[in-house]
Design brief:
heterodimer; A: about 290 residues; flat; B: about 0% strand; elongated
């Protein structure tokens, strides 16, 4: 489908002088196989894909596989870092808000969470960069820095903030849902300590919907890296896909989006499996 | 009116959203300068204050005016694409819920596949195919955010399908289309409005993100996302260029989200 893109690879790759020479153009087109009709290109692409070959990038002249291999790890780094930061913080905030319902803690964390959801991620990133890197010079503003933690903090925190906000809201809502159930009242009335009721009865039952959101949000984190990586010039898959779209590098766009899609499928699959372990009421098959 | 006094989120959200809508409509009367034509290199990168309340950009254009006009683009895209999404999602959801069976399976499987791909990636792919333009953004966002509406519409339809008043109108011999339009649609209006409100906020944020990446609204149109991506280059010398467009975006999206929260409380007091 992406082959409908306007723009001719040969024109992009060759330098402008040679582009005027039809003979050179023909040779370039043959090199990438785009002189052949669409259906043949589709079959070739699919059969290469099955063998794990994503083709050649128009822009760089390197294989898409090597481009992705190079940018995969940086993205994984900040996504995992952000998730590890956000998941405990978000659940904790939501838990406190629900237990102390109506208190200033509750209102404070909910105000924070609606701001966290409404604020554009790239702007939050820019503001963090402005405050911490430009004004106070505590952290490096942009770049990869060989993957050192100092360079990872700003992009990861930017990625994590909206997730914290969303998880806090979800946790609070699902805990409040569970709190009114009969078995919670039973647990209290048989004299169990409030701590035990909160962790064993309330949290345990709310955890399924929390995990669903966390899983879905892990997928969203991967998507948001596209923006955050551009803000911080982080050399990951997000920067790769945006640069490729801007320069109409079709094989690179196709390849990166394919890997993203694989990631989403994998995450959904893992979340589905986790359910069975957490909630004995859910069973697959019969 | 009582609703507004009791429901503070709805009140604050409506005031903010209303104000932004008014600003967008009356932009030519409010803005002190023209957002594109009044470029004057003599006034390039002026800091906020004086004649230019929020400073000027590299071409010497008044940032306040550009932000005011930017509200037009954001709201236009937010409301038009969400309108498209609501029409697509509601129709598919109603059909899936009311007809059921194989049609339901087909529609819901497709919806779930779409739902598993984050909207930003989907919109990015569509824009890569169509090339950046205002029309492409409408199409890209109009085709990506309908899935939530579809799921809600289907779930609501299912819950009303077996109610007595639907049975009654069926036994009176009303056609299926009439039942859906006259009896089911008015009943599921509330939840759909809530989803649509949140959808407007999402669409506004997505447009800004795409423009920030350079594949959304194209310059010289004053889009907040584009302004922010330009502002990033001046983070050391002219930080006002990245602070204020983002603030405008935050306030607008916050207003719409608060309104959505308020509406949800109104229709579903249980979650309060």
């Amino acid at each position: 489908m992406l082959n409908l893109l306007p723009g001719d690879a040969a024109l992009l790759a060759g330098d402008p002088r040679s582009a005027r020479n039809p003979e050179v153009l023909e040779r370039m087109r043959a090199k990438w196989g785009i002189d052949k009709p669409l259906h043949i290109r589709y079959v070739t692409y699919m059969s290469n894909l099955l063998r794990g070959d994503l083709g050649m990038s128009y822009r760089t002249g390197r294989t898409v596989n090597s481009l992705i291999a190079q940018s995969f790890f940086p993205t994984l780094q900040i996504v995992l870092f952000a998730f590890l930061l956000a998941a405990p913080t978000g659940v904790f905030l939501g838990f406190i808000a629900a237990v102390r319902r109506g208190s200033s803690l509750d209102i404070g964390s909910m105000v924070f969470s609606i701001f966290g959801i409404s604020a554009p991620r790239f702007w939050v990133g820019l503001m963090l960069m402005y405050l911490l890197a430009v004004n106070f010079r505590l952290l490096p503003a942009t770049g990869y820095g060989g993957g050192s933690i100092r360079y990872m903090i700003l992009p990861a925190v930017t990625l994590a903030l909206p997730l914290v906000a969303l998880l806090a809201r979800t946790t609070r809502a699902s805990l409040l849902d569970v709190m009114d159930e009969d078995y919670v009242r039973t647990a209290r009335s048989k004299g169990l300590a409030e701590r035990v009721v909160q962790t064993r009865h309330i949290l345990r039952n709310a955890v399924v919907s929390i995990i669903t959101i966390a899983g879905l949000q892990l997928a969203m984190l991967m998507a948001n890296t596209v923006i955050v990586e551009k803000v911080f010039s982080w050399p990951g898959m997000g920067s790769l896909v945006v640069d490729s779209v801007l320069r109409q590098d079709i094989p690179a766009v196709q390849g990166t989006i394919f890997v993203f899609a694989l990631g989403f499928i994998l995450i959904n699959f893992i979340v589905d499996i986790l359910y069975v372990f957490i909630d004995p009421r859910i069973k697959y098959g019969s | 009116m009582k609703v507004f006094i009791k429901n503070k989120q709805l009140l604050i959200g409506s005031i903010i959203t209303g104000a932004v809508i008014l600003i967008a409509i009356f932009a030519p009367f409010i803005a002190p300068h023209h957002p594109v034509d009044d470029a004057n290199l003599l006034y390039a990168l002026e800091p906020p204050g004086g004649e230019f309340l929020l400073g000027t950009d590299r071409q010497g254009r008044c940032q306040l005016s550009r932000i005011i006009y930017g509200a037009r683009i954001s709201l236009l895209i937010g409301f038009v694409t969400q309108g498209l999404n609501t029409i697509i999602g509601t129709s598919l959801g109603l059909i899936a819920g009311f007809v059921g069976g194989k049609v339901d399976d087909l529609i819901m499987n497709f919806t779930n596949i779409m739902l598993s791909i984050p909207p930003l990636i989907l919109a990015l792919t569509i824009l890569a195919i169509l090339g950046p333009s205002l029309l492409s953004i409408f199409i890209a966002l109009g085709l990506t955010l309908w899935t939530y509406t579809c799921r809600v519409a289907r779930a609501q339809t299912l819950s009303f399908k077996e109610k007595e008043f639907v049975e009654a109108s069926r036994s009176l011999g009303l056609s299926r289309i009439k039942i859906v339009i006259r009896h089911i649609l008015p009943n599921i209006f509330g939840p759909l409005l809530v989803i649509a409100t949140f959808g407007v906020a999402t669409a506004i944020l997505l447009e800004a993100s795409l423009s920030f990446l350079g594949i959304g609204t194209q310059p010289p149109a004053p889009s907040w996302g584009t302004m922010l991506s330009r502002g990033r280059d001046y983070i050391y010398s002219a930080p006002w260029l990245m602070i204020y467009p983002g603030l405008a975006l935050l306030i607008t999206v916050l207003g719409v989200n608060l309104m959505g929260d308020g509406l949800r409380d109104y229709w579903d007091p249980r979650t309060r």
